[in-house]
Amino acid sequence: MEETAEGTKLWCGAAAVMAWLGGWRGRKAAAAGLAAVAVAQLVSNGV
Question: What superkingdom does the record give (predicted)?
């Protein structure tokens, strides 16, 4: 499970569920979450 969480597959799956079931607020939250994951990966891989 730890490898899944670190590889962002878990977070992408959670975002997909939020976007699918959450209406416009879920889609907005999913987009913000995916953007945060992308920025975090860029920062952590750059350092």
Answer: Bacteria
